[in-house]
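Q: Here's a chain of 114 amino acids. Please give me its 3D structure as tokens.
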Amino acid sequence: VQLVESGGGLVQPGGSLRLSCVVSGLSFSQYTLSWFRQAPGKEREWVAGIARTGGNTNYLDSVKGRFTISRDDAKNTVYLQMNSLKPEDTAVYYCRALASNVYWGQGTQVTVSS
């Protein structure tokens, strides 16, 4: 099983990034998918999740209205569109696949700074 994130980088406050996580080695459509983040010196926190069926989504309060999670089961990929980025969004972002087992990606760095 592999989860490979991409799309991170350096962006100015107010800017946008789109993260992708390509998943292989499991039945993608059967898994609930989530994005987490971990800032320096802080614990990892859940950011957004999308259900396996129907695509119901949920968000951390501080990102509601700015971030959008989506999935493409044909491409085995989950996305996180991040708009109106703030310095406090700076973190390593991880995707997670959850069903009977849990799998994590290696993370991608997002830095929001002027």
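Q: Can you summarize the key feature?
A: The chain has a mean pLDDT of 96.
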